[in-house]
C-alpha cells in the first residue's frame, strides 16, 4: 500500500525513448503495490502504434499539449489540451498525433504495462537531432515481445 506522498517530475534519469517517443516514468508499479503507474509521453506525428488491445490494464490519457485523435473501439475522439480519454482493457485502440508532437499524461491501471515500455526503452542520446522510427527488425522484436505483457497488435 502507498503510505507516503510521492512527488516526481521528468528528469534525465527517468526519461527514455520507446519506439520513437519520450517516456518519463513518474510512478511505477513498485511505488503503488502494482495498483497503477503514471507516465508522461511525448509523442511525435508519424510514429504512432498500430491498433492494439491490452488484456491486463486500462489506459487513461490526459492531453497536456498538442492534438491527438484516439480511435477506441468504434469511437473517434479528437483530443485537445485538457481532454481526458479512457481506453478500457479488452478494447482495440490506437491514436494519431495531429500536431508535430503531443504531450500526454498516461495513467495505467493496474500497473504492469510500464514494464513493457521500460524493457524496450533506450537512453535518450545527447545529440539527438531527429527521432527515427524503429527499424523493421526492431518492430518485429517489439511485436513478438508484446504478448508477454498481454498486448495484442492487430496488423
UniProtKB/TrEMBL annotation:
Gene3D superfamilies named among the record's database cross-references: Jelly Rolls
Source organism superkingdom: Bacteria
Pfam families noted in UniProt: Cupin_2
Domain Cupin type-2: 46-104
PANTHER family per UniProt: PUTATIVE (AFU_ORTHOLOGUE AFUA_8G07350)-RELATED (PTHR36440)
Stated name of the protein: Cupin domain-containing protein
Amino acid at each position: 500500500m502507498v503510505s507516503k506522498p510521492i512527488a516526481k517530475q521528468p528528469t534525465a534519469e527517468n526519461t527514455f525513448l520507446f519506439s520513437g517517443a519520450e517516456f518519463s516514468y513518474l510512478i511505477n508499479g513498485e511505488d503503488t503495490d502494482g495498483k497503477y503507474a503514471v507516465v508522461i509521453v511525448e509523442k511525435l506525428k508519424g510514429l504512432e502504434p498500430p491498433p492494439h488491445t491490452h488484456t491486463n490494464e486500462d489506459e487513461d490519457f490526459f492531453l497536456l499539449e498538442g492534438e491527438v485523435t484516439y480511435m477506441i473501439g468504434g469511437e473517434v475522439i479528437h483530443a485537445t489540451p485538457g481532454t481526458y480519454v479512457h481506453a478500457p482493457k479488452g478494447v482495440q485502440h490506437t491514436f494519431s498525433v495531429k500536431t508535430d508532437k503531443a504531450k500526454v499524461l498516461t495513467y495505467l491501471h493496474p500497473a504492469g504495462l510500464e514494464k513493457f515500455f521500460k524493457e524496450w526503452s533506450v537512453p535518450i542520446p545527447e545529440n539527438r537531432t531527429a527521432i527515427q522510427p524503429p527499424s523493421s527488425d526492431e518492430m518485429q522484436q517489439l511485436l513478438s515481445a508484446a504478448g508477454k505483457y498481454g498486448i495484442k497488435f492487430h496488423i
